[in-house]
């Protein structure tokens, strides 16, 4: 078995350290008892975490982000599975163009999408609602789910589906009892990536949020323009902890190596 040499291991260590260092610093700053962004030297404190939960605007924004991300990711999964099945199993005119259209939000800057959606929602008179904010997030995150669903479908052995059909199963039963369980890692990974990207979305959300629908990243941006204190670090540390817990849970259930490549 081929093993990495010392130079490769050193390079990998430096890369991992470079990626993790800012996260570690943020978590340490969140534990400072001081009123400024400083690393704790003599003692640690949870005062800024308490301040976050005592801040009604941050709590409301967190609930908005949670609702929007969960709803948008779930709807994106439904759309991506239907689109993935059509693109993978049917050969029709315009198939490549339709696939490019579904994946186009990955290539369009979110600033442009935000301005375009703001103009569209203004023409429709549909601003200031979580429903329309969720619709904007669905546009952005659906490609993430679609890519993993297509990867799962491309590696799917259809013999099990054919066997179910020959035994008299209907198309819906085959889809629900055979197809979905076989591509479940891809669906789960797509939902996870969609949820994380929706929860962290800032650039587009700035344009289409209202005072009643401010999400957590937008709230953090607004707070940072007014004052910079360790409360921002505490919110960031909480987001890091939630993301890490979700990844650990999924790794225990499915295995991240299967989820991230969309294979069972």
TrEMBL record:
Superkingdom: Bacteria
Pfam name, any one: BPD_transp_1
CDD domains the record matches: TM_PBP2
The entry's keywords: Cell inner membrane, Cell membrane, Membrane, Transmembrane, Transmembrane helix, Transport
Domain called ABC transmembrane type-1: residue spans: 62-250
UniProt cross-references to InterPro entries, sorted A to Z: MetI-like, MetI-like_sf
PANTHER family the record matches: INNER MEMBRANE ABC TRANSPORTER PERMEASE PROTEIN YDCV
Family assignment from sequence similarity: Belongs to the binding-protein-dependent transport system permease family.
UniProt-recorded name of the protein: ABC transporter permease
Species of origin: Bradyrhizobium aeschynomenes
């Amino acid at each position: 078995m081929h093993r990495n040499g010392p130079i490769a291991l050193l390079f990998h260590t430096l890369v991992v350290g470079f990626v993790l260092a800012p996260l570690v610093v943020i978590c340490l700053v969140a534990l400072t008892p001081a009123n400024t962004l400083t690393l704790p030297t003599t003692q640690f404190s949870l005062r800024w975490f308490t301040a976050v939960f005592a801040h009604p605007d941050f709590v409301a924004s967190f609930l908005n982000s949670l609702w929007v991300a969960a709803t948008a990711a779930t709807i994106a999964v439904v759309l991506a599975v239907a689109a993935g099945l059509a693109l993978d199993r049917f050969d029709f005119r315009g198939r490549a163009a339709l696939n490019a259209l579904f994946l186009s939000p990955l290539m369009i800057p979110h600033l442009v999408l935000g301005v375009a959606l703001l103009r569209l929602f203004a023409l429709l008179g549909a601003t200031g609602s979580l429903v329309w904010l969720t619709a904007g997030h669905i546009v952005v995150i659906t490609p993430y789910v679609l890519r993993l669903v297509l990867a799962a479908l491309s590696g799917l052995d259809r013999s099990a589906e054919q066997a179910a059909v020959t035994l008299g199963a209907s198309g819906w039963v085959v889809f629900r009892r055979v197809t979905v369980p076989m591509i479940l890692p891809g669906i789960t990974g797509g939902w996870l990536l969609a949820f994380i990207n929706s929860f962290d979305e800032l650039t587009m959300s700035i344009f289409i949020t209202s005072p009643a629908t401010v999400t957590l990243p937008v709230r953090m941006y607004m707070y940072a323009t007014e004052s910079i204190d360790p409360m921002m670090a505490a919110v960031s540390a909480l987001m890091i902890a939630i993301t890490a817990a979700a990844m650990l849970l999924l790794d225990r259930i499915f295995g991240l190596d299967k989820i991230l490549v969309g294979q069972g």
